[in-house]
Amino acid sequence: MTTPDLAAHVERGLTDLRDLVALQSVSAQGRMLNETAAAVSRLLEAEGFRVQAFPGEVAPILLAEAGEGPFTLLIYNHYDVQPEDPVELWHSPPFTLTERDGRLYGRGASDDKGELASRLAAIRAVKEQHGGQLPIRIKWLIEGEEEVGSPSLVQFVETHQAELQADGCWWEFGGLRDDGRPVISLGLKGIIAVELRCKLADSDLHSSLGAVVDNPLYRLARAVASIRDDQGHILIPGFHDSVREPTPADLAALETIDSGEKHLKDTFGLKRVFAEGTEYAYRTNFKPIVNVNGWGGGYQGQGSKTVLPAEGFVKLDFRLVPGQDPAHIVHLLRAHLDAQGLQDVEIVELEAHQKSARSDMTAPFVQACISAARHVHGEPVVHPSAGGSGPMHPFTDTLGVPCVAAGIGNSAGRVHAPNENIVKEHFVKGVAFGVELIGRLGKGG
User: Fold this and answer.
1) Domain count of the chain?
2) Which residue in 67, 82, 141, 195 has the fewest CB atoms around it within 10 Å?
3) Is Kinase one of the keywords UniProt gives this record (predicted)?
4) Residue 173 contacts residue 118 (beta carbons within 8 Å)
C-alpha cells in the first residue's frame, strides 16, 4: 500500500471545483441544473461509480455506488446553489472561482460544490492508496433541489430505501474554525417557512384616511410582535409542548463547546445577541426559534409618500427541534393569530418544510468521524445539532442511519451571500479528513 500524493489530488479537486462553480446551477431559477447533474455524473463515472439519474420536481437526483467492503458509507451532497444576487456586492465574478489571500471565492465554493469536490478528491486518494480499489462500499446521493427545500427527497428516500441502506451517512456540510478546530454536527433543526399576508383595500389610499381605515402593515406588525418576546422565546400556545428534550450525552457535549459568539460578533459586527457561553450553545443546538426574513408593502422609495397601503406581507421561518411537526406548527400559528383577533392575516406556506433530525452521540460511526477529525485536525467541537436546517430527517428516521456533518466551511464563508468562499487550506484538510475517515471505516472504525 503506497502513500497517496495528496497534493496532486488536491489540485485535481480544485480543478473540479473551478469547473463546477462555472456551472450556474441556481435551483430557485431553474438554471443549468441538467447540465450540472451531467457534469457531476461524468466525474463520478470516471472514478468507477455506477450512476443512476432520477427525475425530481426541480432537478435530477443522482444515486451512485462503488466499492466493496465491511462498511457501507452513504454520502449526501447537492449540486444546486443559491442565486448570486446582489451581483454588485461581489468583489469577483460569482461563477468564476477566484483566489485572494488564501481564500477561494465563488458561488458554491463552500455550499456545496467545495464539499463535493473535496470528497471526490479524497476518494481518488484512497483508491490510489489501495491499488485502485475502495476498502468500503460508498453510496453517494447528490440532489439538485436542496436550496429550494428538497421537495423530491423525502419520497425518493422512502421509495429507494433498499438502495440507500448504509451504516453511516457523511452529511453535506461542516467547517473549521479559525483556530483549526473542526466543527462537527450530528443533527439539524427542522424548518417551516411562511408568508403572512394582509390586504384591507383594493388600492392604496391617502394616509389621511388612517383616521378611519386600518393599516395592513400595522396588522402584520401586531402579528409578528405577538409571536415572540424580546429574548426570542416563542409565545404561541402549545408551540413547545411536543419538544423532545436533549439526552444527557447531548447536554454533556455542550460543556465541551467553545461557542465562539465573540468571533461571530467581530466578524459580522453584531449589536445584540441573546446569550453567551453555554447558553449560546444550548440555543443554537436545542432551542426552536422564529425569524423575520423580510417585510414588504407600501412606499419604500426615497423620501416620504403619505400613503395608506392596501396590502403587505412578511416572511418568516421557524427553526424546529425533534418532536415538532411543521404542519402542526402552522396549525398552532393559525389558532394563535385568530386568538389575537388577526383573522384577516393569511398564512401561506413557502417551499417544502423539513423535520428536525439528531443522531446518537454514542453510535460507532459518529465516534469514527470524531476520531478521524481528531487525528487530522485536533480536538473537534461536536454539536448535537447544527442551528441550520436541511433534509436529514428521512436519513435518520426513515433509513435509521446516523448522520455526521463534517466539512470545509468557515465562519466567514459568506454562504448564501455575496463573496461566498472557502479557505484553501481547509480544502486540503478536508481531503485529508476524507482519506482518514474512509481508511478507518475500512478497518472497522
Assistant:
1) 3
2) 195
3) no
4) no
Residues, the chain: 445
Instruction: Summarize the confidence of residues 406-421 as an average pLDDT.
Output: 96
Phi–psi pair at 26, nearest 5 degrees: -90, 105
Instruction: Give the three cell numbers for residue 55.
Output: 427525475
Helix axes 326-339, 216-227, angle to 10 degrees: 120
CATH number at residue 333: 3.30.70.360
Give the residue numbers spanning the domain of 400. Answer: 6-188+356-442
423 lies in the same domain as 330: no
Looking at the structure, tell me whether residues 348 and 384 fall in a common domain: no
Secondary structure (3-state) at 381: strand
Query: What is the Cα Rg of the chain in Å?
Result: 23
CB 395 within 8 A of CB 403: yes
236 and 94 inside one domain: no
Q: Do 311 and 166 fall into the same domain?
A: no
Q: Report yes or no on 422 lying in a domain.
A: yes
Q: CA-CA distance, 245 to 286, in Å (whole number)?
A: 8
Chain segment 292-333, per-residue pLDDT in tens = 999 999 999 999 999 999 999 999 999 999 999 999 999 999
Burial 253-289 (b: 16+ CB within 10 A, else e): bbeebebbbeeeeeeeeeeeeebeeeebbbbbbbbbb
Give the separation between CA 34 and CA 55, rounded to whole angstroms. Answer: 10
Q: Are the C-beta atoms of residues 341 and 214 closer than 8 Å to each other? A: no
C-alpha cell at 181: 478546530
**pTM of the complete model:** 0.88
Contacts of 166 (CB under 8 A, 6+ apart): 72, 73, 74, 139, 399, 401
Q: Three-state SS for 362?
A: coil
Same domain (yes/no): 85, 109 = yes
- H helical segments located in 113-236: 113-129, 153-159, 161-164, 216-227
Give the bridge partners for 74, in sequence order. Answer: 139, 169
Distance of alpha carbon 167 from the chain centroid: 22
Same domain, 43 and 106: yes
In a domain, 1, yes or no: no
- Is 127 in the same domain as 20? yes
- Separation CA 185–CA 177 (nearest Å): 13
pLDDT at 383 over 50: yes
State the Cα–Cα distance between residues 176 and 102, nearest whole angstrom.
15
Cell of 294: 423580510
Please write the tens of the pLDDT for every residue from 79-107.
999 999 999 999 999 999 999 999 999 99
Grade residue 1 by pLDDT with cuts at 50, 70 and 90. very low
69 and 122, same domain (yes or no)? yes
